[in-house]
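Structure ticket #2291
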Amino acid sequence: MAGLLFAAKVWRWGLLPACLLMLQLVSAQTAPAPAAHDDAKTLAYEAVAIHPSKMANGMMWNGNDDSFTTSGTTVRSLLMNAYDLILMDQIEGLPSWGDSDKFDIQAKMDAETAAALKNLPREARNKQRGQMLQAILAERFNLKIRRDTKVLPCYELVVAKGGAKLKESAPDAPGGYSMNTGSNSSFINGHGMQLTSLAYSLSNTVGRIIVDKTGLTGKYEIDLKWSPQENPGSDDSGPSIFTALQEQLGLKLEPTKAPVESIVIEHVERPTEN
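Resolution: structure written out below.
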């Protein structure tokens, strides 16, 4: 999907499928939590408009503090964001139109909901956004699912022979990262980044879920560059992601299998237009 773009402000909400060409996130990993909050109550969008999309190629997804809009999105993409899934294999039973039919969606919160969401800590805020999207899928697509687990090929992120080559961030450094997975070169540039976040972010790149098994719990300055999988070894390309991890960070990906959360679609319908 050429031209696929995901734009976010200060929140990180799931991952789009592996066809993502550019992902740029700024996440406040060290933001302090408010003194009190209520994350038990599920918030909801005040108004939701859904239409068949006329977007022939690509997909756009834009989020703001009080709304989100998406164009050319599929039900599979909505599911992956709503349930915080990484791989397409984590969804079973989706009808073929769930990958082919595209929709434009505009969802808007009222001022009270937007304020309540903004006051939540980052992780609780992301969870609420997912639940709000789950509600759209249930109400407008008549989605019914059951949760399951399946054993899938994964990678473990471990320290390579010779030790890690990581620079710890200053304790008061703001956390966040940017990531580009373009067709010519790819990189992650992170500040105050935990290796669990690095593993999560690279899962789409390698097509498997990566589990952090390094045992390293600090926050690091990450400067990782590699060649996309379709171009490794070409004259102008850099190393593969596997080689780059070892040479630049002193880390290694080891193949394994592990139980992974999945969802099984029991019922879903095309939404009525409004």
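Closing remark: The chain has two domains: 5-143, 150-259.
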